[in-house]
């Protein structure tokens, strides 16, 4: 297949955290001459259009999201609604199947990349096309939670079940606390749109697709990917790191000026994504813990539960105590540009992990345990809460020069950074992905 170009359609789950990695993948494929038809919610187009580096080859096709009772008018993605309403977004996405079929009949792509739309493999087979489940959830998470060996659809799933791995699962550092296991079991078995559970939706997608692709490398997640491939009896495709191209934008002058006040490799940057909303007490423990470190910090979080503005939720006297050293914002921040700034450790950023829901928990265990490239903040065994001292302890363990754990983490971080940035690695993986 060397030299052959393909027509590819992409239809990711209506969440910005899924749409964006699909666009990064589309860019890598377009770079090799492949043509991409990218379906996405109509109003989301403006938020992601700038990430399209090959507009002559990547064509965004806006999809009108059908209204579902219970959703606010105009809600399109998970960003628009709280977590309990995500299944309604999924139900709306399921109702687009007739429109997607009409587009696919017209476009006649060679492959369709998808993730949560479990009806896609049956549709592509009907149309004589091939489906690729391109999964941005880690293979460790998929293998641990959704292995066919668990027989979830026949037996159900409880927190007790998730305290141990499924039969044949590779040796790993994944160990769940009971509250985590119970939470993951509840999410895995919940109705996730159109009367289909989260587990059934994914098991159908993995079982029915023609191939499974993961955004990872064999050297990092090989055992988990091989386990999944064997469990579902599907060919496994490794896309490699799929590192997005650096944004051509520059930091606003006011933010550049702010960050330049701090020495290189000293600033703590804290961001949990657009969908994480902390309880007020946990938000306060977090910022108080960052205050205790004595280091400069920049926090970009949504206002906690019950607060209209983030300033109103800050602890009493906090702003006066950290004036000039600590900054807390409740709006969007240009994360990539901030992390490239010298004060924020450029590409050498060390990771303090604070998992909240879903695959974040297992990802944190893999990063802090298997790979040893980060430190996870300790939480209460029973309630899952952390304190300001837990935050301070994790940061100090990583940042203090005389910390043995910090030395080990930094050494491993440097090793994996060198591996992932090695000349030719990404090209090799992407070429193998296409030629499979």
TrEMBL record:
Keyword annotations from UniProtKB, A to Z: Transferase
Residue spans crossing the bilayer: none
GO MF annotation list: UDP-glucosyltransferase activity
Keyword Transferase attributed: yes
PANTHER family: GLYCOSYLTRANSFERASE (PTHR48049)
Similarity annotation: Belongs to the UDP-glycosyltransferase family.
Name this protein carries in UniProt: Glycosyltransferase
Originating organism: Gossypium barbadense
